[in-house]
Amino acid sequence: MTENPSIYAQAGVDTAAGDIAVELMKSAVAKTHGPEVLGGVGGFAGLFDASALKDYDRPLLATSTDGVGTKVAIAQAIDKHDTIGQDLVGMVVDDIVVVGAKPLVMTDYIATGKVVPERIAEIVRGIARACEETGTALVGGETAEHPGLLKENEYDVAGAAIGVVEAKNLLGPQRVAGGDVVIALAASGFHSNGYSLVRHILARNDVLYTDHSNELGGTYGEVLLEPTRLYTRPLLDILGDAELGSAVHALSHVTGGGISANLARVLPEGSWSEVDRSTWTPLPVFRHLSDLGGYTLESSEGAWNLGVGMFVVAEANKAHAIIAALQTRGIEAWITGAVSLDERDLTGFDQGAKGINGGAVRMVGEYAR
């Protein structure tokens, strides 16, 4: 049954605005499509030709879904929506590469109080740009107008993606060995985690997102919307390298839960590692917000990445070559610890996380200045 558009509009839903938004975003979405994508934008389902999977001996599908948390509140507060899409792709697609998988397709979902076509298109264009950068086809999405549930300028975004990895190349704890080193990959900022704490600190100090910070070199809103760094392409390049790929045993995406807990998830039971804080200097925004909130950097390690967005666990003799390969691809990296299987007292270590009985990790030392 087709509803009378004018009647639906009386309830606050503007289907015509949704159609306009689709037209505005179509060209950006199309740029993510290779010959494997069948059809265009607007179908009930996105279609992807998976014939290439027949060349795999045992293809494993990897899937991930996520959002960007309360970072959207800052985008809405300063009316800047062109980077939040990259945050979404980073949160979803970089989870897939953690197991060694190549991302294939992604879909997005935007719920809003009122469809403003230009704003929706801006968000989706950001998603599409990041999908293009990571080699992921954006094959579908949904924009839902929820008047009465969300305010006119409020929205939330979520996404899901699917990738594939050859079973014999699956990364994870089963490949990690004693003596492996832990390589830290630099983050661009907060990425998409810990923003509830950020917002709490700013509100408590009566700081507006439009206020300028001399220490940070911009307004709080602009600095806090620094988009999530995308690690997929550089890591897939390394995994596909004949010499370096086999030396990478595990990857960890530093997202919700903090630094040590996320590393512990990809280490085998019975192993442990100490992450040396002195090997890096947290970005100024972390120190500034910690000082503003009256917290130590150490106390925020469970909420913020403090400048580390990803870990690579790899063979020690290939670590420097991996670091060099990352740096040529624009990602600063450094050795920050090692994995041990020796027995020891694990009091004070984070042991596994999110239902996974992994290894044990703790932070040691003091952050460099």
From TrEMBL:
Residues 179-340 form the PurM-like C-terminal domain. GO terms for biological process: 'de novo' IMP biosynthetic process; adenine biosynthetic process. Pfam families: AIRS, AIRS_C. It is found in: Cytoplasm. Keywords: ATP-binding, Cytoplasm, Ligase, Nucleotide-binding, Purine biosynthesis. GO terms for cellular component: cytosol. Gene3D superfamilies: PurM-like C-terminal domain, PurM-like, N-terminal domain. Its main location: cytoplasm. InterPro entries: PurM-like_C_dom (IPR010918), PurM-like_C_sf (IPR036676), PurM-like_N (IPR016188), PurM-like_N_sf (IPR036921), PurM_cligase (IPR004733). Its EC number is 6.3.3.1. One of its GO terms (molecular function) is ATP binding. Pathway: Purine metabolism; IMP biosynthesis via de novo pathway; 5-amino-1-(5-phospho-D-ribosyl)imidazole from N(2)-formyl-N(1)-(5-phospho-D-ribosyl)glycinamide: step 2/2. It catalyses: 2-formamido-N(1)-(5-O-phospho-beta-D-ribosyl)acetamidine + ATP = 5-amino-1-(5-phospho-beta-D-ribosyl)imidazole + ADP + phosphate + H(+). Residues 57-165 form the PurM-like N-terminal domain. The keyword ATP-binding applies. NCBIfam families: purM (TIGR00878). Belongs to the AIR synthase family. This is Phosphoribosylformylglycinamidine cyclo-ligase. It comes from Klugiella xanthotipulae. The gene is purM.
